[in-house]
Amino acid sequence: MARFWGATRGRAKRQHALARLIIKPDLRGKGYGRELAQSLLDEALAHGPKTVSLNVYCDNKPAIALYNRLGFIAIERAPGDSKSDAQYVVYEISRSAAFGRVCRGDN
Fold first, then answer.
1. Which of 20, 30, 39, 104 is 20 to 30 A from 90 (CA-CA)?
2. CB 4 within 8 A of CB 24
3. How many CA atoms are closer than 13 Å to the CA of 11, on its beta-carbon side?
């Protein structure tokens, strides 16, 4: 049985998304999430996208902290995009803009 899992997928010509980053509960807090997320981010960036995005539930504080450290920021969904309850976050390749926090209201 896999201990952690994740995927990347191209969404549009210059966009890539990370999906289903899952760490087995007894392995959480040991750095596997960071290793997985960084590996998937590196794989996505190798395709030359303008942005890399993912969804994260606002009650998933450890994941939110991780994505903040990796440089993801919370942004509004585009009109007509998914109606998910999860927060939409993006890693901007230009990274010249000031970054906000994932999930508004978090410290």
1. 30
2. yes
3. 18
Cα-based angle 99, 55, 43 (whole degrees, multiple of 5): 80
- All domains in the chain, ordered by first residue: 4-92 (3.40.630.30)
Residue with the two structure tokens 């990274």: 95
Q: With contact defined as beta carbons under 8 Å apart, do 94 and 87 qualify?
A: no
Question: Please, are residues 52 and 39 in contact by the beta-carbon 8 Å criterion?
Answer: no
Q: Are 49 and 14 in contact (CB under 8 A)?
A: yes
Tokens of 23: 């760490």
* Cα 76 from Cα 96, distance rounded (Å): 19
**Which residues does 58 contact at the CB level (< 8 Å), separation at least 6?**
64, 86, 87, 103, 106
53 in Cβ contact with 90 (< 8 Å)? yes
| pLDDT tens profile 11-55 | 666 888 888 898 999 999 999 999 999 999 998 888 888 888 888
Instruction: Give, in degrees to the nearest 5, the angle at Cα 96 between 95 and 102.
Output: 50
